[in-house]
Write a structure and sequence with these properties.
Layout lengths: L2 E8 L7 E5 L2 E5 L13 H6 L2 H17 L6 E5 L5 H13 L8 H6 L3 H10 L4 E5 L5 H15 L6 E7 L3 H9 L22 E8 L8 E10 L4 H14 L9 E5 L4 H12 L7 E3 L1 H4 L5 H10 L14 E8 L3 E8 L4
Parallel strand pairs: 4-5, 4-6, 9-10, 9-11
Antiparallel strand pairs: 1-7, 1-8, 2-3, 6-7, 8-12, 11-12
Helix pairs in contact: 2-5
């Protein structure tokens, strides 16, 4: 079950982490710079849309423009939270208006499928349209959905696959209250407890056959939920490679989603020091922060040709991406620059 990436676009995180002051503590987090929405979205629409929808619509339309495509046959989107900002507004209006005279607009915009629907309306795409809200498996589920769709429907040429999650002050506060966010007043070292929260928007255009524009081949995707030990993670990697007639020796670079939280990174750390020992390894969440669809950022990061890090070097022909979310959702993506 392979597919070819025609183009991929992601909003690059800002160079330095931002900070938020909460109850005497400083919480670091990573956000994306606001793009020039008016390149693809009219001013009237910009005013009406939620930030979540604007981020996703801008990224998807930019992906299509740079890929030289004007239409798609289907749209699949993954998100862990949907528009959390609009959910905040709706929740606050309930209390402010004492549950009377509420505007339904923030609630409608907060629905996770609002983005995929807006993309379809903008592109006039009446084909398959699906949103996957599966926490740490959200993007991977959207990608698997697209791969299966290409296999089942032989007349499909292009599917737009995306992942968007936004960060808000309230969400950072909730992470801090549950002890899931790092604070500069304690310890922000990678091996300490807590994560640096992040956000992102990534879209890619996939097709069943390679073309002159293709940048990579998705050779396989595998998901693993709540592994009991590191051996199960290793077995999942080996099965993915075996399904493609490969061994670990044929993988050039590995991107791993260590979140920086020692409570959740132990198994990946063990895998790196044992099974993956000797392989070039890149920890991509040091750049984008931790969020539920960070695997999409890893895929974009791995395929960039204008970066000098080992993971994105043109000499890395086959790349393995291993992500974990809260030590429960483990996903494995095998990507190759070799289109043959």
């Amino acid at each position: 079950m392979k597919a070819y990436i025609e183009h991929i676009v992601s909003l690059d995180p800002q160079a330095a982490a931002q900070t938020l002051e909460l109850t005497g503590e400083t919480i670091p987090y990573v956000t994306v710079a606001e793009p020039e929405y008016n390149r693809f979205i009219s001013p009237g629409e910009i005013r009406r849309m939620s930030r979540f929808t604007k981020l996703g619509l801008y990224t998807s339309l930019r992906c299509l423009q740079e890929a030289g495509a004007s239409a798609v046959d289907a749209v699949t989107v993954g998100t862990g939270l949907g528009s959390f900002g609009c959910f905040e507004k709706f929740d606050q209006s309930i209390h402010a208006a004492q549950e009377s005279g509420l505007s339904p607009t923030p609630f409608i915009h907060s629905l996770p499928n609002a983005l995929a629907g807006q993309i379809a309306l903008t592109l006039k795409c009446s084909g398959y349209n699906m949103t996957h809200v599966h926490r740490g498996f959200a993007f991977e589920s959207a990608l698997l959905d697209a791969l299966m769709l290409l296999q089942e429907e032989t007349d499909l040429r292009h599917i737009l696959v995306g992942a968007v999650d936004e960060l808000t002050g309230t969400y950072v506060r909730l992470l801090q209250q549950t002890g899931y966010a790092k604070t500069t007043s304690t310890d922000v070292a990678p091996a300490s407890e807590g994560v640096v929260p992040g956000e992102g928007a990534t879209f890619l255009l996939v097709s069943p056959q390679p073309s002159e524009r293709s940048v990579a081949c998705i050779e396989g995707v595998r998901l693993l939920f709540e592994p009991r030990n590191t051996d199960e993670i290793r077995q999942a990697v080996e099965e993915l490679l075996t399904d493609n007639g490969l061994s670990l020796d044929q993988v050039d670079t590995v991107l791993t989603g260590r979140s920086g939280d020692a409570r959740f990174d132990a198994r990946l750390a063990s895998l790196e020091s044992d099974y993956l020992a000797g392989k070039p390894i890149v920890h991509y969440k040091t750049r984008c922060g931790e969020y539920q669809t960070a695997t999409a950022f890893a895929l974009w990061s791995a395929l960039r040709s204008d970066d000098t890090t080992p993971a994105r070097s043109q000499t890395s022909q086959r790349i393995l991406i291993i992500n974990q979310y809260q030590d429960a959702n483990y996903s494995f993506l095998l990507v190759s620059r070799d289109l043959n």
